[in-house]
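Q: Given only this backbone (390 positions), what sequence would you predict?
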């Protein structure tokens, strides 16, 4: 199986040994961050630093002229990725014989929400989620589509494809600063209700679906009352219907799925228009279409008619691959994303077995999260497993 590892530019820039060390793992590709959210990251082998703090969401290259005069535009990175850090890292990796694809985070940007509050998801209580741009707002959608095209296609760097993360709805669930939201067990249904947006654009969208937006927001608040008392709703979509009512639940889902599908279509189209022939476009995806987050909820048949394939989270098991495998074509890429950092819940020692299970469910490629964050011991397990898979 073809294996790729995720990486940040700061894992490579300033460390001349990094490209050869990565190639020796047995991977064939690096999925390199070009646009990324705020983070604090270890760099266990870097000769100059051990911790990198990315203070805000940023592009890891100089933003282009397309943003001149626009209110919504990407932020340049600070000292954690100065200049064209993406290009420096990409060229070093390609010189070592590795393919490089860009890694682009879209609808996840706290600074954007802080500086432009009207871009954010607004829940049924009126609370804003600054980390979650509302993908229904026209200006926000235009920003995200242009960001996808620019960050994905980095001319002169040898970049041969891209992976678009959070190309869909973001919601409540997010490790936001020192997070303190786990005191009440929301379950999947509560997460959905707390992630519904009631900004002006979404209120108009619900009205198109035959819902009264004010009454719908009130219904969401009533539905959540048992949750605040400590009654965790059991189940997934069935529980949403039980709490909100089947008709209202279906209408909110129809609006959100339509909005996500059209964003995905527009983003992929924009990337392809900007890219050379043969440029591969994958989406990080969850096969349950109402879910939010980095792995955007999608309709498997639809997304595989739009993109070249998907990257699917499989650390907890390979079951999410099956809905995509049912709709694949011979050209589809179905990549199983496996965490290989033991300190982050990964299973590097079991990588060969996990990869075999993923292959049995239809995966033909692996994505390994994350080569820059893993310990030497974790990477030794990765190298051993990839040698077995070869």
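A: Predicted residues:
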């Amino acid at each position: 199986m073809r294996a790729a590892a995720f990486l940040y530019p700061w894992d490579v820039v300033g460390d001349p040994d990094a490209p050869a060390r990565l190639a020796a793992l047995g991977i064939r590709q690096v999925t390199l961050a070009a646009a990324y959210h705020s983070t604090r990251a270890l760099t266990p082998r870097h000769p100059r630093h051990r911790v990198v703090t990315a203070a805000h969401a940023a592009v890891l290259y100089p933003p282009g002229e397309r943003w001149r005069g626009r209110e919504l535009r990407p932020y340049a990175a600070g000292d954690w990725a100065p200049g064209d850090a993406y290009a420096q890292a990409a060229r070093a990796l390609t010189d070592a014989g590795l393919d490089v694809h860009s890694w682009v985070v879209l609808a996840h940007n706290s600074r954007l929400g802080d500086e432009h509050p009207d871009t954010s998801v607004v829940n049924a209580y009126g609370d804003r989620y600054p980390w979650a741009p509302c993908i229904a707002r026209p200006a926000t959608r235009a920003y995200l589509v242009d960001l996808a095209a620019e960050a994905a296609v980095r001319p002169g760097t040898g970049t041969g494809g891209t992976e678009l993360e959070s190309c869909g709805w973001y919601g409540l669930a997010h490790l936001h600063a020192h997070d303190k939201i786990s005191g009440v067990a929301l379950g999947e249904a509560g997460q959905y209700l707390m992630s519904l947006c009631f900004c002006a654009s979404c209120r108009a969208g619900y009205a198109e679906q035959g819902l009264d937006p004010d009454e719908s927001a009130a219904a969401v608040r009533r539905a959540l009352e048992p949750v605040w008392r400590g009654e965790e709703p059991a189940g997934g979509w069935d529980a949403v219907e039980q709490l909100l009512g089947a008709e209202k639940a279906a209408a909110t889902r129809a609006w959100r799925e339509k909005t996500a599908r059209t964003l995905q279509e527009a983003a992929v189209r924009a990337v392809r228009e900007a890219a050379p022939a043969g440029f591969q476009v994958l989406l990080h995806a969850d096969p349950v279409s109402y879910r939010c987050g980095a792995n955007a909820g999608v309709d498997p048949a639809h997304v595989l008619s739009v993109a070249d394939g998907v990257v699917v989270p499989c650390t907890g098991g390979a079951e999410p691959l099956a809905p995509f495998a049912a709709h694949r074509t011979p050209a589809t890429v179905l990549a199983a994303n496996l965490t290989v950092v033991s300190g982050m819940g990964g299973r590097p020692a079991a990588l060969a077995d996990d990869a075999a299970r993923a292959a049995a469910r239809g995966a033909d490629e692996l994505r390994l999260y994350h080569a820059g964050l893993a310990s030497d011991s974790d990477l030794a397990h990765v190298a051993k497993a990839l040698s077995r898979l070869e």
